[in-house]
Structures are given as structure tokens and as C-alpha cells.
Amino acid sequence: MAILTCLPGLEVAVEADGQRAHEYDADPEEVESRAEEISFHRIQQTHRRRRHGNPYVLKYIEAKPGKPFAFIFDMMNCHDFSTGPNIHYTCVMDGFCTGTKRVSSGTRDKRYYCQTGSQAAGWKKHEFRFGSLNVLEGGDGTQAEKAKQYGTLLVKLFLAVETGRLEAPSDRDGPTLIHSVHEKDLKGKAVDSKVSFDSEPIANPPPFRMRDFVDPYYRPIAVFEFRYRTMCKSQLHQGLIQEAIVSRPTPVPDEVIDAEEEYKEPENDASRGIKREAPMDDALFAARYKQRRLENGKIEIDLTDD
Description:
Layout: E1 2-3, E2 11-16, E3 19-20, E4 24-25, H1 28-37, H2 42-49, E5 56-62, E6 69-74, E7 86-93, E8 96-97, E9 101-103, E10 108-111, E11 113-118, E12 122-132, E13 134-136, H3 144-147, E14 152-167, E15 180-182, H4 183-186, E16 193-202, E17 209-214, E18 222-229, H5 239-242, H6 259-262, H7 282-288, E19 290-293, E20 299-302
Parallel strand pairs: 5-18, 13-15
Antiparallel strand pairs: 1-2, 2-3, 2-6, 4-5, 6-10, 7-8, 7-9, 7-14, 11-12, 12-16, 14-17, 14-18, 19-20
């Protein structure tokens, strides 16, 4: 469960195939470097000067191609914002941004789909799912900037400073599907999967809602970033291992062979002139050697010559 030090109590996670995805920590230096690249809301500049913590979290998670996933936004134990600005969050998947959603303190929200369309063209519901990405050899690097967003799920938080009137849903374009990417565009990242969508038409448009005016510069107050990679047995799908987020497992032999048990006597010793005696049973052993039972119950064997 990813947590911000500057907003204690607020938690964000990704759920894959009905289970909370295990989170792997990123390199602290990369976290700090990435945080410097993001243009945060001016309120965070003051918070950071006061050492209230970094408004950015970076985690790695395992992608499971073909399985659905969802975002969990938990404010059950968060600061009460009822007397101040409201918080909105939006999800960004491989660069595709969903609409913002208002959340309140003391609530927990699960987002596993979004809606796109228009009043004229109709509306569609898109459920989130992981898919396999076709990585092609070579490339000229012209799509490198766009490929920076591949393999990444973002949750951005915004402040709503004023509440407006009730409005109908605005038109929204559907997600751009990703089919393949060249190795050179990825610049060394082991991105091996993508976000796909189970899309279907819906009869009713999204409901009217009270529009909140977000910060005019539309800068987030916090960002959660989840980089998803696969961790399959196939050499082609080991993104978490290839980026050294997870250690490569030590190979275990399929079978342990006992040397004594494995050894077999040659069957053709007779042809080599080697004479072997057959093993003796108890009766033959007693007949060959003189033996008598002592008073204490032990057996004494006479090995002297006759």
C-alpha cells in the first residue's frame, strides 16, 4: 500500500486479478530524481521547505497479462477535508488519462473502468486489463518520448478550490491502443506488457455532476507512480528480474540422484572372467559356519578351522 509522508492516512494501491499487488521499492535516488521532474502545486513547495515529506511515491508491481486490475484510493484514515478544498484524483495508464473523480475523507474508492464518448456518438465503458506488449527489435528512437509512459500507472491528486453548477458530462476521447514498441524507444527499460481495455457500448451516459474548479495551473499536489512489469518463467517476460527489482531465482535441480542407488552391476561379468558368489541366505549361512546360542540370548559363531 503506497503512502505519502506529506498526506498521512491517505493510501493508494493497485489490485490485480482481485488481489492487492505486491509493491517493490524503487531506487531512492531515482525516486528523488523523478520527484524533481514533476511540477507540483505551489502548496507543496511550502510543504517541502517545511520538511513535510515528498509528495511522490514510486513502486514496482507485477503485471499479469490477461487479468483485470483496479485502482484503490483509500481515505478512510485521512485528514478531514470537509472544511477545506476537496481532493480529486485521476488515473493515467500508459499515457491515457481518465476523468477526475471527487473523493471525501472517510471513504474508500475502487476504480476499475472509465467511460468515454459523446452525446452524439454514444458512450462506452472501458474496464482495465493487463495485456502483453510486442517488443520489436531495433527502431530509430523517434517514439522514445511517448514510450516513456508505457508500463506506467499514475494516480494524480488535485485540489478543487471552488464548486460550480451541475453539468452534463463532457465529451471524452477513448483510449489509444498500444500494439507494439521498438527496443530503442524503450531506452533500456524492460517494459513487456501494456494496458488493454474490455470495451462495450452503454445505453446511458455518465450522470450529471457538480463541477469543481481545480487549480488553474492543473498541477498535482501529489503523485503515485506504479511501474508494472511481468515476472513469468518465460525469458521474454521477466521485466521485474531484468530491471533488477526482483532477484533472479536460483535454479533447482529437477531430481537428486543417489550415486549408490544409481550404480548398477555390469551384466556381462562372466565374459570378463570375473567370478561372483551368490549371496547367502540365513540357512546357508548357518550351515557354513558353526554357531550356538549363549545363555544371554546372543549367538556365537565359531570361525576356527575344523
